[in-house]
Amino acid sequence: MGGVSAFGVYVHVPFCARRCDYCAFATWTDRHHLMGEYAAACRSELGRAVAAGMPPASSVFFGGGTPSQLPAGELASILRAVPLQAGAEVTVECNPDDVTTALLATYRQAGVTRVSMGVQSMVPGVLAALGRRHDVAAARAAVDVVAGAGYGDAYSLDLIYGAAGETVADWEATLDAVLGLDPAPAHVSAYALTVEPGTPLARDPGRHPDADDQADKYALVDERLGGAGLEWYELSNWARPGSECAHNRLYWSQGEYRGIGCAAHSHALRPDGRARRWWNVRTPDRYIGLVGAGQPTEAAGEDLDPGARRFEATTLALRTRAGAPADGLDPAALAELVDAGLVEQTAGRVVLTRPGRLLANEVVVRLAS
């Protein structure tokens, strides 16, 4: 970005047509009548942030929820309120059955550079088990529309593995279908299904994922995507060289970002080596009301001292292909983990091996403690 510091803006869009059984995000299926007011509140919050000195963004990410549920013109109006650096990456998350030629034409005109679609699976029974509202045909059709709109080299697919009843053969079928798309995605995120408290999935132990099954499926996705030229660059993310998500890399490198909208998180650095992280109120109704009244939208926050930031930097770095500097890691634990084949040390950096990635949380805690 021409020497300008990276800075991200995240815009939370809390509207969904249907809540998936595994979802614990701040999303609502009965608040669509608030969309116009919500977009106006986001523009107002951005205006305040800019007036308070928010720098131009090197990346913008519209997440949710389902940003593609928001009328395209409203999303474009929010994006226009964000000052952008030259060449900024702008991503919008979409559901396949929301994708239309008109929607993407508006996105393109507004400056959206990247589309991320939540496909999750290409097997009908697995989609049903996940509670997804689209079908396989809609996913394929959406990719055709994305390619026709000029995003063929700039779209990403999200996948989830470990749903109840999903076999290894089902997961192979999903990977075959994804890699067989024309054009194939340049970026894929593949997440292990997790059980979040308070969700329908959490209340149904019979549908909880099996750790060994998910380990097998992780190894399979890593092998298949790597063989197709998509390299892992973070535990759950693979991309062709040059197609990595700049906004997510900003998070993993402890960069600064500003969250806009209800439940959105922000992170700011301080000259004394400390940092502050804070988040907005959770519900769209309350968020709209606070913005309209000229009141702060922050719900809570936390200060990070230099020690906490160093620990966090190490844990985040170890989740990436670049790894973390060996200096500062526990030497005894490092030696044991190298011998166990869970990490490798190259040019003064420590990187997780594939077996190490399967045990990432445990390995990271041992090295960073």
Describe the structure.
This protein has 369 residues and is an alpha/beta fold. The chain folds into 2 domains: 7-250, Aldolase class I (TIM Barrel), CATH 3.20.20.70; 317-368, no CATH class. Helix content is 38%, strand content 23%. The chain contains 13 helices and 15 strands. The chain has helices at residues 35-51, 72-80, 101-110, 124-130, 136-151, 168-179, 211-227, 246-252, 284-292, 306-317, 331-339, 354-358, 360-368, and strands at 7-13, 57-64, 84-94, 114-120, 155-161, 187-192, 231-234, 237-239, 256-260, 265-269, 275-280, 298-304, 324-325, 343-346, 349-352. The chain starts with 6 loop residues before the first strand and ends with a helix. The mean pLDDT is 96.
Q: What is the strand and helix layout of this fold?
A:
Blueprint: E1 7-13, H1 35-51, E2 57-64, H2 72-80, E3 84-94, H3 101-110, E4 114-120, H4 124-130, H5 136-151, E5 155-161, H6 168-179, E6 187-192, H7 211-227, E7 231-234, E8 237-239, H8 246-252, E9 256-260, E10 265-269, E11 275-280, H9 284-292, E12 298-304, H10 306-317, E13 324-325, H11 331-339, E14 343-346, E15 349-352, H12 354-358, H13 360-368
Q: Could you provide a short overview of the structure?
A:
Helices cover 38% and strands 23% of the residues. It is α/β, with parallel strands linked by helices and 369 residues long.
Any low-confidence stretches, pLDDT <50, length ≥5?
A: none
Total strand segments: 15
* Helix/strand order, N-terminal first: EHEHEHEHHEHEHEEHEEEHEHEHEEHH
* Category from helices, strands and their pairing: alpha/beta
Overall domain count: 2
